[in-house]
């Protein structure tokens, strides 16, 4: 096996169609990363010591511990460490232990799980809600339960991977429209055969790699005109988007017009878990037919207890949201005025588009080595030519932390020719 540095990338190590041993790609990737990973994307998969906060210690691959300003956490409102949340988790651990021991329908649920579902339903103004082990499995389970061969699912091209995986598993026909392009969506809908009545439009609310919002008001209008159901993934919207943090539907004034409101409890809510809110009949159906619910163990009760507290806090904490948007504005304006391409973000996710993987790796590695951590995003999350740093903003970031980050961005952006 070669030990040379190469210009290969992650796209080169995927399925090859049965012509070679399935382990060949495994060995090739191993070899590639052994000789290229630090130059390439050394910041992928680092361990963080301590809770998600504005400052954390990360463990480098060589064991070095480094104190960094955290611009790579989706705990936007800083709730993971809130004393009331921690106290609720501790109390529930004493009462329920730390794991459930069975899938929900076979004795794996508790009054805390039910209370969390009721809170979610109240939060979205729906009749009921169901919780899943995580957002990924929620999306997969919901789509595969509701759609099947002969149905049509219509996706924004930038939807989350879990949505595409759910669509693939469902066996439904899949159409994709250009990112947030309503003219293209209408063209796709117009071309659907009249006989194909099982139609579902799926969109992220906030697109996770771009930070922009789906034009939900227009999607609702098109869905009504072309007789489609709508599913939205509110993963990065819950708690922060909309006047009271109830998400993209609230932002666009179309609450009550969405058939399936799904999401994850891992971003602003700060823990883990997926959900789908909708009619009572829908939720009841999903309990029996969403296989990622039926065949998968429920969230640990302490997590459910923490999340109940989180929803109480999120509903009341307008000041926390205001602090977040102040920080987002400051960082976004700062990065833009330095000349970085930050796309069309409207959320707490700020993409910094670099477009060249080697440059991206070097930029992110040096940023981190000098004390600022960001996510590094490339294939398969985005196209390689659109690879980027993903800067996520928390409301706990201080002015001096943001200033330090912007100073480094300016220096290294010039050094790596990302800006002039
Ligand atoms: C838009 C979106 N949907 C779903 C998920 C999956 O959620 P989870 O991490 O809870 O599996 C994520 C990210 O994690 C996401 O960004």
Describe the structure in brief:
By secondary structure, the chain is α/β, with parallel strands linked by helices. Helices cover 41% and strands 16% of the residues.
Describe this structure in words.
The chain has 14 helices and 13 strands. With 420 residues, it is of the alpha/beta class. A hairpin with a 5-residue loop joins strand 2 and strand 3. It folds into 2 domains: 42-77 and 318-415, Alpha-Beta Complex (Aspartate Aminotransferase, domain 1), CATH 3.90.1150.10; 82-316, Aspartate Aminotransferase, domain 2 (3-Layer(aba) Sandwich). The chain is 41% helix and 16% strand. Strands 4-10-9-8-7-5-6 form a 7-stranded mixed beta sheet, sandwiched between helices. A 6-stranded mixed beta sheet has the order 1-2-3-12-13-11. The structure holds pyridoxal-5'-phosphate. Pyridoxal-5'-phosphate is lined by residues 134-136, 139, 160, 162, 204, 208, 233, 235-236, 264, 266, 272, 274.
Quick tags:
Aspartate Aminotransferase, domain 2; 420 residues; 14 helices; binds pyridoxal-5'-phosphate; Aspartate Aminotransferase, domain 1; 13 strands; six-stranded mixed beta sheet; alpha/beta; single chain; seven-stranded mixed beta sheet; globular
Write the layout of secondary structure elements.
Blueprint: H1 24-41, E1 47-49, E2 55-59, E3 65-71, H2 83-96, H3 111-124, E4 128-132, H4 135-146, E5 152-156, H5 161-170, E6 173-177, H6 182-190, E7 199-204, H7 216-225, E8 229-233, H8 248-251, E9 260-264, E10 274-278, H9 280-289, H10 291-294, H11 301-316, H12 318-338, E11 349-353, H13 357-369, E12 372-377, E13 388-392, H14 399-415
Helix pairs in contact: 1-13, 2-11, 3-11, 4-5, 12-14
The protein binds pyridoxal-5'-phosphate (PLP).
